[in-house]
Amino acid sequence: QVQLVESGGDLVQPGGSLRLSCAAAGYMITRYGVGWYRQAPGKEREWVASITAGGFTNYADSVKGRFTITRDTAKSTVYLEMNSLKPEDTAVYYCHTIGTPFWGQGTQVTVSS
């Protein structure tokens, strides 16, 4: 059974950093791409970053240069390193196995002073 579990969300001040984790179980993370998405209150869910099965990465313009997506195949985990956080980054962050119906439960990131 495929399962995705996010962790690492927290309350952080503007300019701060966080690292989110997406632990995958039930399949090999190198078989599918994995994406990070976020949903702020009252807004649609939006794509943030993704890493393909081959390891190529892409980022939304709003986070390019500040966020980095990586994966550790030995740990079956995909990470989202977030730096220079802004209040507008506040949202629930989800990971998703691209091309499948599998999503994690989400982790809350709040950027506020």
How would you characterize the overall build of this protein?
This protein is an all-beta fold. Helix content is 0%, strand content 48%. The protein is built from no helices and ten strands. The protein has a six-stranded mixed sheet, with no helix packed on it. It is globular.
Any chance you could write out the topology, listing elements then pairs?
Layout: E1 3-7, E2 11-12, E3 18-25, E4 34-39, E5 46-51, E6 57-59, E7 67-72, E8 77-82, E9 91-97, E10 107-111
Q: Short description, anyone?
A:
With 113 residues, this protein is an all-beta fold. It contains no helices and 10 strands.
Low-confidence stretches: none
The overall pLDDT, averaged over residues, is 95
The biggest beta sheet, please?
Answer: 6 strands, mixed
Q: Residue share in helices? A: under 10%
Q: Span from first to last CA?
A: 40 Å
User: How many E strands?
Assistant: 10
What descriptive keywords fit this protein?
113 residues; mainly beta; single chain; four-stranded antiparallel beta sheet
